[in-house]
Every structure is written in C-alpha cells, then in structure tokens.
Design a protein that fits this description.
274 residues, alpha+beta, globular, Creatine Amidinohydrolase, 5 helices, 4-stranded antiparallel sheet
C-alpha cells in the first residue's frame, strides 16, 4: 500500500480541501450555532469545489447522513450533525474527509482525512489540558514517524503523554492507512498492547497513515448510541480527537492535511462564513 511521490502529491490536494473545510468549521464554531449548520457549510464547500465527501453514505445499519462527524463533549467520534445547539463551555470534535477524483473517473481518486477539537467560548482548565494533550500526541506522531523504525515506538510515546497527564487512551478505536480508499491497512493504534505488538509494522517511505488520537478525561470505556453511529464515553466525561493524514517520504514526514505552504494552495472560504 506504499504511495509514490506523485500519488502523495495527489493526496496533498485532497488534504488541502480538508484543511480548508476545518478552517470553515473553526470560524463557525460559537455558542448558538447548530452542528447541522456547520455540516451544511462544509458540504457546500465540497460541492462547489467538486470533491467527493468521504463520510456521507458510509454503509451501516443507517448510512451515515452527513459530510462531517461532529461530536460534542462526551461524544468521542461519529456524532451526527443536526439540531444540537453548541453552548458556551462545550468542546466539539469535527472530523471530515474528501476524495479528489482522477481525470475522467467517476469514483477513482485519492483521499484526505483530518479532525480537530474546538473550544466553544470559555472552557474549563481540564478540558483545555485534554485538548492540548491530545493535540500533543498527534504532534509526537508528526515528529517521530521519521525517526522511529516501527509504529509501536511512536504509539508508545503518544500513550505515555496521555497517561502522564492522567487521561485514558481509547483502545477500541484506532487510526488507519489511507490512499485510494478512506480506510486501508494497516490499523494505527494510539497505544501499545500485546495485540498491537503482534500487528506492528515498519515505518518506511511511501507509507501514508491517518493518525487520530482519541483521549478521555475519565474511563477509556465507550459505547454506541441508538442512532447506530455516535460513540460516547460510558462515564459521560469529555473526550478529544485530533487527526492528520501523514505521509512518510524520503525527506521526512509530510502533513498532507496541514495548512497551505504557498499562495497557490490557499482558497477563499469567506463565502461559507456568512
């Protein structure tokens, strides 16, 4: 599943659309807005730029109905956008992805996937620390993927940061390889266990991973709500989620869902903020 330099460049184009989508989300997040309004703006952005949202229609007991997963407070991931109004003091994880199509193909293309957790107004000190630690775990992946030989060595450092701060790393949910499809091998855990060591993999140029630490203030235990999608912490304490699509190249780690590196990569998103 290794990607060439040209293929990674194509994935970067998808990642840029995802980065801009999350910029729209960041500027919209505020007390009083609904999660459905945020999703609608991002869906319009994808439609206007003729890219394919990855999440909408994902099969399940109920096909996923939106282009974003928006998860508030105790909701870990896969929250369904709708009428919920964001309140001062909430934290909200927004996860989205898209595919850019190959020329002349109706389905074949390259994917990007990313997530961030945002504060809604003023939040508590422990919520802020949770967000900082989870973001810090993702930063470790960016820094260490080009230095370590195996994924477990990176995951061990990520897990240690969470545990040092008294937080729990969810072990029922993991990241994933990404490329032509949103989910490709290998599975990418944010922790180390006997099972993950048995399934450990080498970090070599050409590997592209969607790394997504999910960290809870309280228990690591989770459950799925009756909507068949939204996953929450069983103690209903807050959770945070950050994600980037990362490519390991011969010159180091490339953050494919990172910010523009030059003016040519910048898009005008102002119309989606009105």
């Amino acid at each position: 599943m290794l990607k060439s330099a040209r293929e990674i460049d194509r994935m970067r184009k998808a990642g840029l659309y995802v980065w801009h989508a999350l910029q729209i989300a960041e500027k919209l997040v505020r007390p009083g807005i609904t999660t459905g309004e945020i999703d609608a703006r991002i869906e319009q952005f994808y439609e206007d730029h003729r890219v394919i949202p990855l999440f909408k229609g994902v099969p399940g007991a109920v096909p996923f109905p939106a282009v974003t997963c928006i998860s508030v407070n105790e909701q870990v991931v896969h929250g369904i956008p709708g009428d919920r109004v964001l309140q001062e003091g909430d934290i909200v994880g927004i996860d989205t992805g898209c595919k850019i199509l190959d020329a002349g193909s109706p389905t074949k293309g390259w994917c990007g996937d990313s997530a961030r957790t945002f504060a809604v107004g003023e939040i508590s000190a422990v919520q802020r620390r949770l967000m900082d630690v989870t973001q810090g775990m993702l930063n470790i992946a960016v820094e260490e993927m080009g230095k370590e030989k195996t994924w477990s060595a990176v995951a061990r450092k990520m897990q240690a940061l969470a545990q040092k701060n008294g937080f729990s790393v969810i072990d029922d949910l993991v990241g994933h390889g990404i490329g032509r499809d949103m989910h490709e091998p290998p599975q990418v855990p944010n922790y180390v266990s006997n099972q993950t060591m048995r399934n450990d993999f080498n970090l070599v140029p050409g590997i592209v991973l969607a790394v997504e630490p999910m960290v809870n203030i309280g228990t690591k235990k989770i459950r799925t709500l009756r909507d068949h999608w939204t996953i929450i912490t069983t103690d209903r304490k807050p959770s945070a989620h950050f994600e980037h699509t990362l490519a390991l190249t011969s010159s180091g780690v490339r953050v494919l869902t990172g910010p523009p590196e030059n003016d040519d990569e910048k898009l005008d998103i102002s119309r989606y903020l009105c």
